[in-house]
Amino acid sequence: MGSTRKGMLNVLIAAILWGSSGVCAQYIMEKSQISSPYLTMIRLLFTGVILLTLSFVHGDKIFSVIKNRKDAISLLIFSLFGALIVQLTFLVTIEKSNAATATVLQFLSPTIIVAWFALARKKRPGIFVLAAIMTSLIGTFLLVTHGDPTSLTISPAALCWGIASAFAAAFYTTYPSTLIARYGTLPIVGWSMLLAGLMLTPFYAGEGPPS
Fold first, then answer.
1. 163: Cβ–Cβ under 8 A, 6 or more apart, which residues?
2. Whole-prediction pTM value?
3. What is the residue range of 130's domain?
4. CA–CA separation, 132 vs 120, rounded Å?
5. Does a structural domain hold residue 21?
6. Is residue 183 part of a domain?
7. Considering its fold, how many domains does the chain have in total?
């Protein structure tokens, strides 16, 4: 399998898994009545530990990034504004609407990324990219209004959190490229998840699911 097809397959699998995780999160929050921040904390902590363990077993030098002061600061920035915010805003959007709406809103992130790079590089996207952007925007408009621009089918809070989730996902996707190139995907994503979970721990560790 060529690298392009392999990349497309990975994107497809990632999208399916991310959407499925939203459905699971909605089910857990509805059935257990736990809050989205608490679930975010648990999700980040366990994922971080699992990914770092896999990275260590794989032979990666997982502590290298935290020994470099500049890269460690970049990792903290990525952990806070990337891993933590993207997970939290996604789950809050689910809590205030549903998994399908949250996923569609967050998947506006490619549009944001394309727009950012087009402005930064002063280069207009190709016709197919523009068509994809317009399709995603029209689809989102229909989702939140059902074609009536004077009303919303979801709460304003859900819409705001969903848009914030899209911007967070755009940052999450673009910011760590240098770190990943230097240290690998598993160590960077693993540390970012673990650190993000630890950032929430002082505020939500004592919450737990209702008895």
1. 105, 108
2. 0.88
3. 34-205
4. 20
5. no
6. yes
7. 1
Of the chain, the end-to-end C-alpha distance in Å amounts to 50
- Cα separation, 2 vs 102, in Å, equals 32
Rounded to whole angstroms, the Cα distance separating 38 from 209 reads: 8
Q: How far apart are CA 79 and CA 69, in angstroms?
A: 15
Which residue type sits at 94?
A: I
User: Among 88, 64, 98, 99, which residue's Cα sits nearest to residue 164?
Assistant: 88
Q: What is the chain's pLDDT, residue by residue, as a tens digit (211 residues)?
A: 677 777 788 888 888 888 889 999 999 999 988 899 999 999 999 999 999 999 999 999 999 999 999 999 999 999 999 999 999 999 999 999 998 889 889 988 888 888 888 888 777 777 887 888 888 788 877 877 777 777 778 888 999 999 999 999 999 999 999 999 999 999 999 999 999 999 999 998 877 666 5
Domain-located, residue 164: yes
Question: Maximum CA pair distance of the chain?
Answer: 56
